[in-house]
Amino acid sequence: MRGRRRRGAGCLTVLAVLAVIVVIVILLWYMLAGCSHVPVPTPPGTTKKPTSQSASCPDVQLLAIPGTWESSSNDDPHNPTANPASLMLNVTKPVQQQFAGSRLDVYTVPYVAQFSNPIAFPPDGQASYNVSRSEGTSRAVAELTTMYQKCPLTTYVIAGFSQGAVIAGDIAADIGADKGPVPADQVLGVMLIADGRREPGPGQAIEVGPVPTGVGAEVTLKGLSVPGISMTGARAGFGKVADRTYTICAKGDLICDAPNQALTPANMIPSALTLVRAAGNPIHSLYNSFVVDASERTTATQWTAGWAEGLVKGAPYPKHS
């Protein structure tokens, strides 16, 4: 009997130790993966705008935010080379070629742009979605804040793809609610390609091209919380910039067209893995050839470039001093 008790006590001790180890591993996992710390921008003041701005200021700034695996933290925002195949280059390069630097400044937000597998063992060495998204938001808000402070009459075009679309959309929603880094009336337009928070409806982005029946993965997965991945649900809307915010989503792209049966918060780990794989699926990577206007055979990137070019051509010409 004593031997059995000792063996039973020994088993309980081993199980207790294993339980403690599991708790420690989970805690470390959360700390290493990072929580979502999306910065809150300081809204611009209500002081009267000047009648002119510095001669070094561009009339318009096109702020482009690349998608997952299409940027890096140390990339050159005015000559991005981190990923020569970055989708946003198919928008920014054609537009930039049409205008002098005094008319248009193209700023491609440099950020880590990664999405680590939350259960990879050993860890895959990538930044978590939360860390990446927070850095991208911080970098974008900082640039808009700095530009507005230096050049108070400059107007803006904001565009993003994939993870970059989530970031661009979040910033646009803040601007539309008068909580962003620049005034809403100085935003000429916003484009969100494959937005993970896409949700059709009043006050949301205007759909360009075929409209899929699903919604963004973050909407379907609202409440999902695994290490490094926090799904935030749908946005409240785009407020004052809703009438000039657009979105493009290809049918079957789980990032922006997620059916409820594919992703559910109750089935966290498989859903998280599906989300990681969706960031690199073929449909998600083909927006450069995805046709949004069948009559003209215009692709998503061609439409966006033409839209942005039109906005820049029609933008105000502020006085310079």
TrEMBL record:
Gene3D superfamilies assigned to the protein according to its UniProt record, in alphabetical order: alpha/beta hydrolase
Domain of life: Bacteria
Residues of the signal peptide: none
Membrane-spanning intervals of the chain: 12-32
Alphabetic keyword roster: Disulfide bond, Hydrolase, Membrane, Serine esterase, Transmembrane, Transmembrane helix
Any one Pfam family match given in the protein's UniProt record, by short name: Cutinase
Family (UniProt): Belongs to the cutinase family.
The name this protein goes by in its record: Cutinase family protein
Organism annotation: Nocardia jiangxiensis
Top-level taxonomy: Bacteria, Bacillati, Actinomycetota, Actinomycetes, Mycobacteriales
